[in-house]
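Entry 14. Structure prediction run on the chain below.
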Amino acid sequence: MTEPKPLKSHASFPQQLDILRARGLLVQDEAAALAALARLGYYRLSGYFYPLRKTLPPGQTGRQDDFCEGASIELVLALAEFDKRLRLLALYALESTELAVRVALAHHLGKLDAEAHLNPRLLDRRFTQPSRPGQPSAHELWLRRHEQLLADSKEDFVIHHRERYGGRLPIWVAIEVWDFGTLSRFFSGMAYRDRNRVASLLGATDGEVLKSWLRAFNFVRNVSAHHARLWNRRNIETVALPKLEQCRWLAPLHGQPDACSKVFGTLACLLVMMRTIAPRSDWPARLKAHLQTFPTSDLLSLSAAGFPTDWEALPLWLTPNP
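Output returned:
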């Protein structure tokens, strides 16, 4: 093993700005630059510095420390502000889709059993059966998380059910305690027919597609909720695509599969769901208007987020269902 490098030493905000200048970053307004470093932090901004740094020679990965000609702190801050507003827009749609999934799932399974989330007979055997003898099943692990969420909850409705019903909650109540990850994992463990039914109500055509979308949405939600860089981040969960004839809106992703793991892919799937669950929402128009404010520079492009060059003209952004 190679000897670990020593940690970098602490640097004041003026020293941080000096480092950036020494590497070729232009600074037009020093006071504003220092204020931004004090407000946002050098390390958080480093993700926005990165695409403006010079590339290494062919065959080497990563970037040089020095910046490309024309890179400026003002461009970095414009990119960071664009990303902040993108995260807020994503969270708006994610809230709407999460609530719609909760209602559709609980309403459908609640008709079968008020405590469907506790009933392994209603769930996929791969979820309820252990993968190895002596090991807990995925459902048992999920139940531990569910029970912990209930134990930690201070919600009045949870206290009411503890006192009135001995702590038993029907699925349409229990689901309100689950976080997005818990919701996504439970959906993945539902029976095939039930996943398909819920997915068909939400514009995702089938359960396997919606399962992948929920996982991708959860990743974007976590990134956005922690104020992390989103715009050009690769999603650890790749969205699955319906058959082309089932959803023409997503045709661009069929021709650009790499975008399925980028922001364009996730936003495209969010658009499809929003068109279904909130057809009168102005969110698609607001999202498009914001994307059109992407900083103008030869050093940056929305293609890094998976957007095709003609993204603004795609039917995906039009209101009528093609």
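Residues 13-55 form one domain.
Filed with the rest of this week's runs.
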